[in-house]
Design goal:
It is built from four helices and 13 strands. With 138 residues, the protein is an alpha+beta fold. The chain has a domain of 95 residues. The strands form four sheets. Strands 2-1-11-10 form a four-stranded mixed β-sheet. Strands 3-4-9-8 form a four-stranded antiparallel β-sheet. The protein has a three-stranded antiparallel β-sheet with strand order 5-6-7. It is elongated, with a radius of gyration of 19 Å.
Length: 138
């Protein structure tokens, strides 16, 4: 069964993935392509971040050449939700990463159109005071 994985704002179609309850088994190549994580001798690696596989718990993370995305998500404290009907799995950011950005008090860059459809990015106004106003009918 194939699955679509959403991670880091992008989606990846894992053709050989298969779900087993709340577990999603992926090949090493699919895991890396979908999430950026790869297995190295010291454990799972993403850039400079390493997550060791706890001793005696290898079977939770690996079965032959397949890796469980749900086990990795639990180990990295990343929320993982699934839609079984559509075979879509979404991997969120770890709370520590979100908290770090919130503590910085720096708004993420975004781009929105004005009333004349001219695009404006927040980064265009870096170093200037900006007042953002929003409204919703709901």
């Amino acid at each position: 069964m194939a699955a679509t994985i959403i991670s880091g704002g992008k989606h990846f179609h894992a053709a050989s993935a298969y779900a087993q309850g709340d577990r999603l088994w992926l090949s090493a190549d699919e895991l890396h392509a979908a999430t950026g994580w790869e297995l190295k001798p010291q454990g799972f690696c993403l850039d400079e971040r390493y997550i060791p596989i706890p001793p005696g718990r290898e079977a939770e993370f690996r079965s032959g050449d397949l890796f469980d995305l749900a086990a990795l998500a639990r180990q990295t404290e990343q929320p993982l939700v699934r839609d079984d009907r559509h075979a879509v799995w979404s991997l969120g950011e770890a709370p520590a990463a979100i908290g770090g950005r919130l503590r910085s008090l720096e708004a993420p860059d975004f781009t929105l159109p004005d009333l004349d459809d001219k695009l404006h990015s927040l980064s265009d106004y870096r170093g200037k005071k900006v007042l953002l106003m929003s409204w919703a009918s709901w």
